[in-house]
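Chapter review: from sequence to fold.
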Amino acid sequence: MTGDKSEHLRPVLIVDGANVVGSVPDGWWRDRRGAAERLRDRLVQVAARGIPEAPGPLDVVLVVEGRARGVADVPEVRVAAAAGSGDDLVVELAEEAADRPCVVVTADRELRRRVTAYGARCVGPRAVREG
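The token string follows.
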């Protein structure tokens, strides 16, 4: 996310952090913030290479909520902390990105329905967990 004009042409990848972290029972509930930081760090590589549905480079936004708030941005990944519902923030971000390619990472069926109303495509957590 460099701030140049070409940045606005990049696809945006919005990651439902709670849904992706919660998709694998690896003890994340003992340290929600640490789990969100590990996901953020994994997303750095995703920002550069992309995913099959959206080749890189990508603008990546990780949405966190609850006890995962407080995770800092890194140059390749913006972290957006939801004051309330993380799902509502994901929808808001998808609406803001309606003028460019947008992919939302979540397994939440209702959230998928809500973001596709703004033209976003959806993929499951595995898209950013593997590789």
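Two observations follow directly from the output. Confidence is low (pLDDT under 50) at residues 1-6. The longest strand covers residues 59-64.
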